[in-house]
Amino acid sequence: MNKLEEKIISDGKVLEGNVLKVDGFLNHRVDVEILKWMGEEFRRRFDGVKVDKILTIEASGIAIASSAALCFGVPLLFAKKSQSVNVTGDKLCSKVYSFTHKCWNNIFVSAEYLSKGEKILIVDDFLASGSALEGLVDLVSQAGAEVVGIGIAIEKGFQDGGRRIREKGCRLESLAIVESMDCRTGEIIFR
Ligand code: 5GP
Question: Three-class SS of residue 127?
Answer without folding.
Answer: strand
